[in-house]
Structure of Hydroxyethylthiazole kinase:
Amino acid sequence: MDHQTVSQLLARVRQQSPLVHNITNNVVTNFTANGLLALGASPVMAYAQEEVAEMARMAGALVLNIGTLDAEKVTAMIIAGKAANDAGVPVIFDPVGAGATAYRTEAASRIMSEVQVDVLRGNAAEVANVAGKHGNIKGVDAGESMESPIELAKEAAAKWKTTAVITGETDVIASSDSLFLVRNGHPMLTKVTGTGCLFSAVIGAFCAVEQQAGKAAASAAAVYGVAAEAAMTISGEEGPGSFQVEFLNQLAKVGAESISAFANIETFN
Ligand code: ATP
Ligand code: TZP
Ligand code: MG
Ligand code: MG
């Protein structure tokens, strides 16, 4: 995929400012809303079972995240997910901590079975656990992985008929007919909580303006990673606090010039 396509999709996000409905976790709610706003999208968090179907139907994308799950939230996610499926609204699922406890693994499987998920986005361990394998996870953070993330993403995509996105040093985006590898970002992203969750929401914003989920997710990965690199250049050695603030600034500033200079996307069809 060329840099121009990525810039065009980013421009579409900013022009259309799609509504992104998030049912997410208590840790990252504010950061996710601010990150989506910085990018140019329009966030809403709505969790009540009485309103989630209505909200999901009017959104450009629905983002489900089980970071701080409970029975009511899981039910709300399934109601919202089914409504989004009926209305043709893309659904992104972030299986935070899948494999850390049986409850999380079961909830993730239930959501994947009852909702047609367009993009499954997690770290390698989470995606392995959703694919029915053993992924090494410590709470919500990925541990060492034995398996190649490319093979793992392909397997998860085939099992659930979805686009699977595994993030890390290289982001792998796999679906039945495409594979993208995106080498952008910075290890500092792992020192700020919620950067994975916000990335899943940013994929939602791109899916709202581009029907091909693989193309949308790969573009989102490049934009997100280039913004992180720019933030590191500015906040430098200051540390994670300054980086978090500067990253929001750079999500607002990233554009065609920095994408064409720094986006690193490998495409296989
Ligand atoms: P974990 O909890 O294991 O950190 P996560 O859900 O927070 O997982 P990450 O895999 O950390 O998600 O991905 C969040 C963002 O950080 C993505 O944009 C990803 O590309 C980026 N990222 C993660 N690790 C690195 C790295 N070593 N180098 C560059 N970018 C990275
Ligand atoms: N605990 C439950 S959810 C959550 C934590 C720390 C946030 C995880 O965010 P991310 O984006 O996976 O780092
Ligand atoms: Mg993280
Ligand atoms: Mg995560």
Q: What stands out?
A: The chain has a mean pLDDT of 97. The two ends are 10 Å apart (CA to CA). The domain at 15-170+186-217 is CATH 3.40.1190.20 (UDP-N-acetylmuramoyl-L-alanine:D-glutamate ligase).
